[in-house]
Amino acid sequence: MLFLRVVKRLFVGNDGGTSTPYLRWASARAMSSTSYQYETLNVSQPRDYVLQVELNRPDKRNAMNKAFWREMVECFTKVAVDPDCRAVVFSGAGKIFTAGLDVMDSADMFTPHPDDDAARKAKRLIDVVTRYQETFTVIEKCPKPVIAAVHNACVGGGMDLITACDIRYCSEDAWFQVKEVDIGLAADVGTLQRLPKVVGNDSLARELAYTARKMMADEALRCGLVSRIFADRESTITGALDTASLIASKSPVAVQGSKVSMVYSRDHSVPEGLQHVAIWNQCMLQSDDLMKAAMAAMEKKTATFSKL
């Protein structure tokens, strides 16, 4: 009991006594409607500390046009530093998740200027490709966990997108396709680099990349591309939101530190990963969240964590 009294003394009144459950709820709901305004993305806050980012071009089968590639970077750069967001659900509006690249809209991006020599044509193209790569790498760089909620078709660029996400759920009618070889190019914005690590099966990843065959939901679950299957689009999104809410209820220091460490460790050796998380935690173990979680566990209550 002495320990609890000491812990309570440490944490009660840190904000001057102005924090109440209602004020915390109101603050979490107070995301400005003008903060996330985009042509191709619809951003909402359906749960406390949870954002839903929806690809919103249903009349174009959610094809990824030039505005999308730019707006994804803008959106997730904001999400990364938004204290009112602790987890994200990414979904697609309409009948399918996404048809991938909007080839017609993006054609001029890959058409070299007729007066350019080979070096200048190559420079122009690599600038486009590296800029498009950042569209999905920004999901990985964002410290907030991102859950992909896939329904129906997830083609081409959709595979690049979801393999950069932390968690993937899908509906029973979902199917996945690395489509790029069918349009005469190698996938170049993330799938070839991330898919083998996501599914842990190099042979399968190569098969999908070389053949452009469809992978149905049951196979995606078996190979580890997705972790859960739901009946339809609505239940998939609800399931993703439920998981996001659970994540958002945890310490943001702990969750975001876990993501940063797991992304780093994926691309480094075990000793390097251990050193990275040790250096990270030499600061983060000094946060209030550790003691708040301990106090809540001892009192059999739910901890409430400050914004990060």
Q: How are the strands ordered across the major sheet?
A: 1-2-3-4-6-9
Class of secondary structure makeup: alpha/beta
The profile of the biggest β sheet is:
6 strands, mixed
Return residue spans where pLDDT drops below 50 for at least 5 consecutive residues: 1-34
Could you state the order of secondary-structure elements as H and E? HHEEHEHHEEHEEHHEHEHHHH
- What is the count of DSSP helices, taking H or I runs of 4+ residues? 13
The radius of gyration computed from the alpha-carbon positions, rounded to a whole number of angstroms, is: 22 Å
Helix content, binned percent: 40-55%
Q: What is the molecular shape?
A: globular
| Average of pLDDT | 88
Number of E-type strands:
9
Residues in β-strands, percent = 5-15%
Distance between the termini: 30 Å
Describe what you observe in this structure:
The chain has 308 residues and is an alpha/beta fold. It is 50% helix and 13% strand. It has 13 helices and 9 strands. The protein has helices at residues 2-11, 21-29, 66-81, 103-106, 118-141, 157-163, 191-199, 202-211, 217-223, 233-248, 252-266, 270-284, 288-299, and strands at 41-47, 50-55, 87-92, 146-150, 153-155, 167-171, 175-177, 215-216, 228-230. The chain has a 6-stranded mixed beta sheet, with helices on both faces. Strand 2 (50-55), helix 3 and strand 3 (87-92) form a beta-alpha-beta unit. Helix 6 (157-163) packs across helix 7 (191-199) and helix 11 (252-266) packs antiparallel against helix 12. It starts with a helix and ends in a 9-residue tail after the last helix. The relative contact order is 0.11.
